[in-house]
UniProtKB/TrEMBL annotation:
Its cofactor is Zn(2+). It comes from the Bacteria. It comes from Aminobacter aganoensis. Gene3D superfamilies: LigB-like (3.40.830.10). This is 4,5-DOPA dioxygenase extradiol.
Length: 265
């Protein structure tokens, strides 16, 4: 069986499934980037726990973890099954790596999972196992989660980190609320940050990537909190030693909200 790449996606807001944007249209092409996976493991920035958790639910429901959006979003369903056997295997791999995982018997799909998967794999016929982030842990810890699960790639399992390459919601909603143009200074800082990441991921500079808060330009302006960047370190670690990233999408909303996506192999 061909080893699959790993993927990091910037999942956008929940309304990405309705919006006519380059980010949406890119997500609709994700299935073309690789052979059809046997199963998918998703690490979503919206699944936060103390430590790392694995969902064993065979039939996850829906989590509408947002407010103030179009009513039709709250009626959407993504009925992809869970996969308890794979979840058990994931748990064992994390445990063997010394990461002290725990399990969730019941947890639905948050919008970091169901909105991009609805666009990428609309038939909802690929089992999905969800794995959490810990917002109080650093890049190296999430990279270790990816490394622990990397062998699953050889079994036809697609490993996805779903977060956002930039995530300054205060600036984003302020711009929307006031109908203003994007602050060109902030837009420049976003560009510098995303280009730094692009260069480091393409070259596979692991030391710089894992020390992004010290080395990347304008980290706090792009991530006032860190949780939405943590899935990129999972996807990078899951690609294995010597992996390099290929930026496969890089649109920007409202002048500064970046939607970069990376394929690692």
């Amino acid at each position: 069986m061909t080893s699959l790449p790993t993927l990091f996606i910037s999942h956008g807001g929940p309304d990405i499934v309705l919006a006519d944007t380059p980010a949406r249209h890119y997500l609709e092409t994700v299935a073309d980037l690789m052979p059809k996976p046997k199963a998918i493991v998703v690490v979503s920035a919206h699944f936060e726990t103390d430590g790392v958790a694995v969902v064993t639910d065979p039939k996850p429901g829906m989590i509408y973890d947002f407010g103030g959006f179009a009513p039709e979003l709250y009626k959407m369903v993504y009925p992809a099954p869970g996969e308890p056997a794979l979840a058990t295997k994931v748990f064992g791999m994390l445990e063997a790596a010394g990461l002290n995982p725990h399990t969730y018997e019941k947890r639905g799909y948050d919008h970091g999972t169901w909105t991009p998967m609805k666009l990428a794999f609309p038939d909802a016929n690929i089992p999905i196992v969800q794995v959490s982030i810990d917002p109080n842990r650093d890049a190296a810890w999430h990279y270790a989660i990816g490394k622990a699960l990397a062998p699953l790639r050889d079994e036809g399992v697609l490993l996805i980190g779903s977060g956002h390459v930039t995530h300054n919601l205060r600036a984003y909603f302020s711009t929307l609320r006031h109908g203003a143009e994007a602050d060109p200074v902030l837009a420049g800082k976003v560009h510098a940050f995303t280009e730094w990441f692009a260069g480091k991921l393409v070259s596979g500079d692991t030391d710089a990537i894992l020390h992004w808060k010290d080395e990347a330009p304008y980290p706090s302006e792009n991530h006032p909190t860190d949780e939405h960047l943590m899935p990129i370190f999972f996807a990078y670690g899951a690609a294995g030693e010597g992996a390099k990233g290929r930026r496969v999408h890089d649109s920007v909303d409202h002048g500064f909200f970046a939607n970069d996506s990376y394929l690692f192999d």
